[in-house]
Each structure stands twice: as structure tokens, then as C-alpha cells.
Amino acid sequence: MNSNTFTTKDGTRIFYKDWGAGQPIVFHHGWPLSSDDWDAQMMFFLAQGYRVIAHDRRGHGRSSQTDTGNEMDTYAADVAELAAHLDLKDAIHVGHSTGGGEVTRYVARHGGNGRVVKAVLIGAVPPIMLRTPANPGGLPIEVFDGFRAALAANRAQFYHDVPAGPFYGFNREGAKVSQGIIRNWWRQGMIGGAKPQYDCIKAFSETDFTEDLRAIDVPVLVLHGDDDQIVPIEDSALLSVKLLKKGTLKVYKGLPHGMCTTHADLINPDLLAFAKA
User: Fold this and answer.
1) Where are the alpha helices (DSSP H) in the chain?
2) Does the N-terminal peptide bond of residue 32 adopt cis geometry, omega within 30 degrees of 0?
3) Which domain range does residue 120 map to?
4) Cβ-based burial of 90 (10 A; exposed 0-12, middle 13-18, buried ≥19)
5) How confident is the model at residue 103 (pLDDT cuts 50, 70, 90)?
6) Which one of 228, 235, 240, 263 is the catalytic residue?
7) Is 228 a catalytic site residue?
8) Which of 14, 33, 42, 264 is the most exposed place for a label (fewest CB within 10 A)?
9) What is the C-alpha separation between 142 and 4, in angstroms, rounded?
């Protein structure tokens, strides 16, 4: 199948790619990006004989710039509609960052009936990013208020500064900086809608996935870089793996949040080994 769109029950048009045949692997992108962020993984797994699928979350990429439904329950419901539309069975769902939250909620609530056999969380936001009385190690609300203020004031500049700095670790001494990667991040972000991307900040920072993690019955691989400056490992992966019934954690020394792009040569073989296990 080629790239296509389908319309959800509430009238939102969701863009997706569906390439190849074989066992399906569904990729869920981070904020404020699109399915294009998975190029390195989709090409790799397509060559390995898998069916690779990735969608642009509502409000992002080439999907509708809706001003409603930009929260995790609806994101997960959209994925459930996509899985039904494509009649996916025995799928592996792989989520990065915000997409890891989307995978967690989708698998917990909609992953039964043979739809999902495994999941992967990469640099993922669960259990919850925000500092609360129950999550004292989280980031203060001021961090996310800062994101919102920067987006509203000058989204184009903000969407340059994030990839040029902490997202890929390009602000670290000795980093090998790629202008192409920075520009591609900017391109993906600017295609999406400012309003849904603004709303998504609340979705990825304030949603509590604790009970979703506890509810998941399938094997889950948790991958995280220990120099992740966007989703610090201590309050994410290290906690999530303790809540999962069948969780396995792999930590990459010195790797950044966007390691699927900068270090695909390390990440892809580990994803393949888990897919085949």
C-alpha cells in the first residue's frame, strides 16, 4: 500500500504510511514531529521483511490541524481506529517520546484481541513528566509553561533551537552537529498546527500513565539514553520498567533524546532483536 489517509469518527483526517508486507510494526512519533521522523527505522525494517506503518498524529504533519482532541485518550483512540482500518494483528508498536505515551495508553486500552504482541518505548514520557506530590522527581510546571510561551511567541525560532540544542545533544561539547537533521526537525514541526502542538504539551507532560503501564500484559522493551535532556531517564524509563509486568530496560550511555536519528546504527539492531525474540 502507498501513503494514504483515513477519517476518524469525529471527522479528523489522519495521514499514514503503510509499506511492505509481513508482521506489522507501527511507529508513533514524538512532539511536534511527524511520521517522517521514523525514516531510518521504516527503511531498515522494510528491508528486513516487515510491514511498516506510521501515522501523523492529529494536529501534526499532514493530518488535520484540529483544535480538539489533542490529548492522550483521543490520540490512543485514533490509533485504535487506524488499527481497525488496516485490520492490524500481531503488531509491534514502537513509540518515541510523546509517541511512547501514545503507545502506552493505546496498548493498555485497545491492544487486546490479538492486535498487539509487543511494544517498545524509546525516550518515552511515561509514567508522568510533571512534578507532582506523587512524582517529586518530575520537571516543574514552569518548564512546560516555558515551552508554551516560546511556541506562542515565535514557533519558528523555538523549533530551530530545540533540535539545534538539547533534542539531539548538539549542545554537548564534541557533538557531531548535522544541519540537515536540525532543518528536518524544523520542517516537520512547522508543517503541523500551532494550536494542536500547543495543546499537546499538556498531553505529554501532565498525563499520568502509571495505571496504563501496570495494565499492559505484552512484553515491552524500554530504551533510553542516559544523556536525554528532554525526558530525563531518572523520572521516566527507570520508573516505567518497574511498573511493567514484562518490561526490559536498555540504557545507552551518553546518547540523546533523538537517538533513533543520530544513532540508528545502534538502535535498529536492538529493535530487530526484540522483534524477532
Assistant:
1) 39-47, 72-86, 98-110, 141-164, 179-191, 194-206, 210-215, 237-243, 259-262, 264-276
2) yes
3) 4-276
4) exposed
5) very high
6) 228
7) yes
8) 264
9) 39
Render pLDDT for 56-88 as a digit per residue (tens, 0 to 9).
999 999 999 999 999 999 999 999 999 999 999
Residue 90 annotated as catalytic: no
Q: What does the pLDDT read at residue 1?
A: 47
**Which residue carries 483515513 as its cell?**
6
Catalytic residue, candidates 29, 55, 224, 257:
257
Is residue 190 within 8 A of residue 156, CB to CB? The reply is yes
Count of domains observed in the chain = 1
Give the dihedral of Cα atoms 86, 58, 9, 88; nearest 10 deg: 20
Query: Does residue 127 have a cis bond before it (omega within 30 degrees)?
Result: yes
Give me the catalytic one of 97, 205, 236, 240: 97
What is the pLDDT, as a whole number, of residue 100?
Answer: 98
Q: Are 52 and 27 in contact (CB under 8 A)?
A: yes
Show Cβ contacts of residue 47 under 8 Å, excluding neighbours closer than 6 positions. none
Assess whether pLDDT exceeds 50 at residue 212: yes
Q: How far apart are CA 169 and CA 176, in angstroms?
A: 9
pLDDT of residue 78: 98
CATH number for 8: 3.40.50.1820
Q: What is the pTM (predicted TM-score) of this model?
A: 0.97
Report how far residue 222's alpha carbon sits from residue 231's, in angstroms, rounded to the nearest whole number: 13
**How many residues are there in the chain?**
277
